[in-house]
Write a structure and sequence with these properties.
about 230 residues, alpha/beta, seven-stranded mixed β-sheet, 8 helices
Length: about 230
Amino acid sequence: MEPLKLVAVSAGLSQPSSTRLLADRLAEAARERLDDGSRTVEVRVVELRDLASDIAHNMLTGFPAPALREAVEAVTEADGLIAVTPVFTASYSGLFKSFFDVIDNTALAAKPVLVAATGGTPRHSLVLDHAMRPLFSYLRALVVPTGVYAASEDWGGTEGAAGGGAGEGLHARIDRAAGELALLVRGRGAGAGTDAVPGAGAGADAYDPDTVVPFEEQLAALRPTG
């Protein structure tokens, strides 16, 4: 049986990076949940900072360089995806968005995705719901219920983000989100597909012009008859 493939995308720019650290923590937690002995689990982290030039060239020319092509294939062929971005101006970073712009907008349909972000203050935590969920919903991915946001204060101890300390609350969120991702990945691997999730995969493919009632008829049905 082929191994389960888990890919984490990190859009951190600095080195060391709290964004990469969060991606590693999430990937390890999800791997532990998935590694039940029935199938091996392969984990890969894609560092977007190393692909920044290739992403820009791809957007200009439409042709990916070999390293970018390999990263895109890893993401699109993954059984589960973890997407982590730093918060820039109350949203995901431009590098993060550009990477997913070069991926075909149907390639992530029905793929389990865990969204996560890092920032300096808890005030930016809404980025998970007002920016990241809409992005992956548009791409028709299956976004797990729990998103993980890590502010500077969430990294506990005196080590700080770069040192790897993490607060108890962040640990709990990571564990819960990883468990949810593992459940979706197992279901997908068992052949659940989009039929197992109500509304999954709905979109342009679900449009049937023969079943659409013309707008004029809908208005007419609302007019009083007496």
